[in-house]
Amino acid sequence: MTTVSHRPALTAVNPKNPEEWIQRAAEVAAILAVDAAERDRAGATPFEEVRLLKESGLVTLLGPAEHGGGGQTWPTAYQVIRTVSAADGSIGQLLGYHLLWFWAARLVGTPEQIAHVEAEATKNKWFFGGAVNPRDEDVVVTDEGDTIVFNGHKTFSTGGKVSDVTVLEGTLLGSDTHVFAIVPSDIDGLNFHDDWDNIGQRLTESGSVSLNHVRVGWGQAAGFVDKVFQPRVYNTLNVPTIQLVFVNFYLGIARGALETAVTYTREKSRSWLHGGYEKAVDEPYVIDIYGDLTSKLWAVEALTDAVALEAQVIHENAWNVTAEERGEHEVRVAAVKARATDVALEVTSRIFEVTGARATATKEGLDRFWRNVRTHTLHDPVAYKRREVGRHLLTGELPEPTWYS
Description:
Elements (H helix, E strand, L loop, with lengths): L17 H17 L1 H7 L4 H10 L17 H14 L1 H14 L1 H5 L2 H13 L4 E4 L8 E5 L2 E8 L10 E8 L5 E7 L5 E3 L16 E9 L6 E2 L2 E2 L8 H30 L16 H33 L6 H28 L16 H10 L5 H14 L10
Parallel strand pairs: 1-4, 2-4
Antiparallel strand pairs: 2-3, 3-7, 4-5, 6-7, 8-9
Protein name: Acyl-CoA dehydrogenase family protein
Keywords: Oxidoreductase
Pfam family, one: Acyl-CoA_dh_2
């Protein structure tokens, strides 16, 4: 039994502002940090961890206040994701993906769908998963009159068995029109295969899923009116929004690695016997590396926060955002994604240079930080992010909206 299920009570007072929500995330992180390495090794389905996210209120952080939600904005949500990820990258990813899919109705839905989904999701504290892996195009949606039917397979479906609802995506038969729908995760025909067995992010329930005659009403097809999709530029904001989710849990994992390593160096590392220093914290190379890694992390965190504030302006203008505004924002997101990837990988690998050979013991769990970052940063090649930035600088070209840009 993990300590997550035998945890101290959270602060009774409900958070009311961004600072209090970030503090609530820090409380959750402190609970998760106690046995993060143990839970990573066990790889068990994180039912208790998701229960903690629900009880803390973090799952309804973006929900309307009139329905009991936090009523917060994406800049606060990104800080919360980063804070939780410092303790447990898997749970930070689950929370980040949940918040993105909670927002899915706003991204592609009609005003009526947005109001309905956000009210129900907030009041019932739905935890969202998503079967929307864009590399898999074999989910077909068939029009059967008043209903549509999803059939196919997705290689990845983050959230899996711990989700209450799942966002589905497929292509309408005989067209190139994509259809999104939010369905109960226990709906007939939706089968999670429990085959996530990767080196990192082990608790994200990101295995494959099959859709066998999953039937929903046309009214659940997000953004469709009379079976016709109602397009707007904001529909394409799902990519930069989730890429900033990625950035923040990468940086959170890096922060957790650095803080864990600092504690180890202070309490357990030994100075080199030929260095002439009594304590590891006095070793010049140790001081230099920590200073270097901390400076780089601070710089990317500052850029990330700036880009998050830029994104909020677009979210507040969702119905009128232009293609140019969207494209320029995507370039900024691409830049911060590239830097966060590089810095997170560097921090999580170089901490061993300043903790020493004994720090590689399995019981210390320091390897989980690198495994987590290395696993998820392969989601899409960072070279293509740098290319977006370079082409915009040289030619003024804006990225064409795709599943990855």
